[in-house]
Prior knowledge:
The chain has helices at residues 2-14, 22-28, 45-54, 60-69, 74-92, 98-105, 135-148, 152-184, 191-277; strands at 110-111, 117-118. The protein starts with a helix and ends in an 11-residue tail after the last helix. 14% of the residues are buried. It has a two-stranded antiparallel ribbon. Among the domains are: 1-95, no CATH class; 192-270. The protein is an all-alpha fold.
Amino acid sequence: MSAAVCGSKRSFFEDIPSSPSASVSKKLRRCSPSSPSSVRFAPLPSLLDHLQALFPHMDPELLERALLECGNNIDTAIKRLQELHLGAADATGEKMGPVEELGTTAEQGTVTNNGEAADTTAQIPSAPETLPVDGAEWVDLFVGEMMGASSVDDAKARASKLLEVLEKSISEHVAKEAAQSFHKYGFRTGRWKFDARSCAVQENMMLKEQIQVLIQENTVLKRAVAIQHERQKEYQDKNNELEHLKQLVSQYQEQLRTLEVNNYALTMHLRQAQQSNSIPGRFHPDIF
């Protein structure tokens, strides 16, 4: 049984056309003897998807056969495929870009058969040679680094390194803009003092105009207060006159009542006098 498996391993890696040398194929055949790779198992979909995310340019069939030959040990398969990829790059004379190197220099974490990732020590990536020029490129760079991280510690290390590079880039950009602004406003040639004087003169003129406006508004307010005071005085005089008239009316009413009472009393006295002086049967000599 083991002889048949070893023969199948030999036939699989000898059929790879992209192998640059026989040494690379031998490295791919070095699977862990302690792993359950003596019997072929179908590769888990999660492991195959993880390999496709790490090696998007490789043939999916090649990745599946590599997992089968290594007994679904993704750590060993990743190492062997990295060696194969690096060997092919050295043979063709190609060089990976700075962002791609950041994703491949870190050591990938091991994944168990249940799909759980085990933490491994990762190498801190180096800063890219060409920095992004806008926010979208920085976001793409951060996303690429986080996707290439093998563990939480690796992701923290990558994020810390990129944040240092971003902080340095922002500081340099701010210093450059400050130097340009000083040069623009004539700080070095002495024109900055002239601009300061002109600004002070303009500010003084604006303050004078504001003072004139405030004086005019104050005059208007004084006039309005004087008019309001006069109206208030007239209103008070009218109120006093009204109170005086009310008192006169009360006095006249009292006098009228007194006169009415006196008139009634005189009328009664007149009637009584007429009744007492009248003689029946005889007329008054002055009248008749």
